[in-house]
Amino acid sequence: MKPPLISVIIPTYHRNDLLAECLDRLAPGRQSLPIEQYEVIVTDDGYKTTAQKMICERYSWVKWVAGPRKGPAANRNNGSRFARGEWLVFTDDDCLPHRKWLSVYAQATKGDSLALEGAIHPLGELHQDMSECPVNLTGGLFWSANIAVKRSQFVQIGGFDSNYISLGEDVDLKERLSALTKIAFVPDARVDHPVRVVSLKQAIARIPKQAASNAYHMNKYKRASGHENAFDITFFHPKFTVSQIIRHLFAGKFKHAFVELITLLTGVPLLFGHLLRIKLTGVGV
User: Fold this and answer.
1) Residue 63 maps to which CATH number?
2) Residues 89 and 221 both lie in one domain
3) Is residue 215 part of a domain?
4) Does residue 156 sit within a domain?
5) What pLDDT tens digit does each residue of the chain (285 aa) get?
6) Helix, strand and coil in the chain, % to nearest 5
């Protein structure tokens, strides 16, 4: 059997209801690209439940694989190992691809770029307090909710850096790809992303993981950013956090501002601790 042009890779984690809506948009006949030209791989980090049964019963054309349970970067890499396509297209389990999403990407693969990014449009009210949504309308962001990379190039650079356990892995991938190829923006390769409102508890609970990922990223790119040591990096971070607090207060997003205050009080010390550990042990360098 001839390999497909595109392998769609969807990481998931305890969100079968949202995943089902995404898969419905990728079913045979729902995309303008013929099913023979693409495959869909769901890599599942669930531990309480998984999507395996749902996929077997309702989406027999989807390949389900168990994830490594080491964060989203490692989960995406896991899905790529099962891919047969010439191009890897990544999206998230809560995204809603448009009908021409894959056919537009297929056309764009004929160009010179070895990496592509599509548009991400918000569904819902972005201005409410504690709302969040990755939005990419003009390109230059390379959010992992809608990107495509030639598989040979992805393998060559080692895929996503799995040391990122919470966030930043797509920013890092963009930096490494940009050194090797122009990343083309393909606005008609569109997915919609629902705006989510998170609770204060959820936002505060993820601060430690965010601090760890931020520390790793800042250390990895310390020379490029002009911040050479843990003290320099740590003092830069509070300035940014304070600016975020002020911005949210002026916008009337008081819960958002409170989360940034907690980040200032707890996340910055955690960030500094991670940076010292990296410096002393070399782990994460």
Assistant:
1) 3.90.550.10
2) no
3) yes
4) yes
5) 688 999 999 999 999 999 999 999 999 999 999 999 999 999 999 998 999 999 999 999 999 999 999 999 999 999 999 999 999 999 999 999 999 999 999 999 999 999 999 999 999 998 899 999 999 999 999 999 999 999 999 999 999 999 998 889 999 999 999 999 999 999 999 999 999 999 999 999 999 999 888 888 888 887 655 555 555 666 677 888 899 999 999 999 999 999 999 998 998 888 888 887 877 776 554
6) 45, 20, 35
Q: Are 209 and 266 in contact (CB under 8 A)?
A: no
Name the E strands within the chain. 6-12, 38-44, 62-66, 87-91, 96-97, 115-123, 131-132, 146-150, 183-194, 196-197
The pTM score is 0.91
Work out how many domains the chain is built from and give that number. 2
- Same domain, residue pair 176 and 274: no
| Region of residue 57 (phi > 0: left; psi between -120 and 50: alpha; otherwise: beta) | alpha
| CA distance linking residue 257 with residue 263, whole number of Å | 10
